[in-house]
Amino acid sequence: MKRKNQRVGSKNGHSASSGGREIVYSGFILILLCFFIMLCSFSTMDEAKVMRFVRSFSHAVGLFSGGIKFESGSVVLPESAGMVKSRSELAKLFEHLELLSDKFNLKDEIEVLFSREGLVMRLSEQTLFESGVASISTPALPLLEKIGALVAQTTYLIRIEGHTDDVPIHTAVFPSNWELSTARAVNVLRYFIEQHRIDAQRLSAEGFGEFRPLVANDTVENQTTNRRVEVIFIRPDLQNPANEESP
Question: How far apart (Å, rounded) are the C-alpha atoms in residues 52 and 47?
Answer without folding.
Answer: 9
